[in-house]
Amino acid sequence: MRSKTPTPFVLVATLIVAAVLAGCSSEASTRAGAEAGGTTTAPKQVAIPTKVPTGTTLRVGDQLDYLKTVLKLAGEDKDFPYAVTYSAFIGGPPMLQAFQGGAIDTGFVGSTPLIFAQSAGQDLKAVAGWTSDVGSYGLVTAPGRHDIKDWGDLEGKKVAYQQGTAGEAVLLEALDGAGLGLSDVTTVNLPQTQVNAALQGGSADAGVQVEPLTSLYLADNPTAAQVGEATEITDRSSFLIASQKTLDDAGRSAALADYTGRIVRAFTYLQAHPEKIAKAVFVDTFGLSQQRADELVKRGKGTTFLTLPDDIDKAQQHLADLFAENEEIPSKVDVTAEFDTRFADLIEQAAQG
């Protein structure tokens, strides 16, 4: 059966589904810390400038207007005491390049780009993080491949995924849980939007895929199946990051604090109004049915804001070590250097209303 081809807009949109699911429902909590085996000690605070000088501009890296949409849906996009300019990116790697060139002050990425940035020596910090109880990534089989029933069956198989993205983190963590590594599979490195075609064309036996491409693929290929899900906290986490130069600038740091508070309040608002995300994102943007949109939004329940670094450091360190062991980064890194805690109290207060 010939696969339906989503519009380019929908294809690009799939790259931020994990972040959307993580933003549907939010609460300030240290619950994720228990899951990751972390502690809940209070982080050392840094004084936050509160005055935004006239003429300040905050340059934000966004992915398919995700941050803009969240703020707009919650009414948090009004009366900024500074100018906000947005740059559009598809995934974390090109956003890291923009940070390298000094083109943006802040943006959001997943766990994997944060590790790659640190490994490359980029002076970036995560200032806020959130994670969902469920992920949007999963393992799907090629049509008719009934011999693959879970991650442990991937040994010796051709696996399609995109290197340097959350999809690779999902695969690394899942393989590790099954006692395997990247050397045990044949890597088929493709853009996320080409995984379905690789599976249908026979160039991959299985693939790491994300919604809504998973739903579209399974609908077109009834003999294929989803046989695994992302379950690690690092697979489901997103981070608002900023350059150290921005954090060291009093005016832009104050603007970033205000912007961060708006995002947290917006997520909290959308927790009580999930229908807004369902329509604006999954139906109007991704082109899914209302029924499927409602299902995906419902899956996003249980998201928490992370206490950085305590809720995530052990899980993030484990993921970073896996990247090093599999020679995806040149050497081990200490992930505690990835986090800046100055907005911790602000985030908790904003989440509580």
Helical run tally = 15
Mean pLDDT, rounded to whole units?
85
CATH architectural category of the largest domain = 3-Layer(aba) Sandwich
Distance between the termini: 51 Å
> How would you characterize the largest beta sheet?
6 strands, mixed
Percent in strands: 15-25%
* Name of the CATH superfamily of the largest domain: Periplasmic binding protein-like II
The tally of structural domains comes to 2
Q: Which ranges are low-confidence, i.e. pLDDT below 50, for 5 or more consecutive residues?
A: 1-43
> What overall form do the CA principal axes indicate?
globular
Structural class: alpha/beta
Q: Give the SSE string.
A: HHHEHEHEHEEEHEHEHEEHHHHEHH
Q: In what order do the strands lie side by side in the largest sheet?
A: 2-1-3-10-4-11
Helix content: 25-40%
Number of DSSP strand runs: 11
Rg, Cα atoms, Å:
20 Å
The top-level CATH class of the largest domain is Alpha Beta
CATH-defined fold name of the largest domain: D-Maltodextrin-Binding Protein, domain 2
Structure write-up:
It is a single chain. By secondary structure, this protein is α/β, with parallel strands linked by helices. It folds into two domains: 8-134 and 235-348, D-Maltodextrin-Binding Protein, domain 2 (3-Layer(aba) Sandwich), CATH 3.40.190; 137-229, D-Maltodextrin-Binding Protein, domain 2. Helix content is 40%, strand content 16%. The strands form two sheets. The protein has a six-stranded mixed beta sheet, with helices on both faces. The chain has a five-stranded mixed beta sheet with strand order 7-6-8-5-9, sandwiched between helices. The longest helix is centred in the last third of the chain and has 23 residues, at 250-272. The N and C termini lie far apart (51 Å).
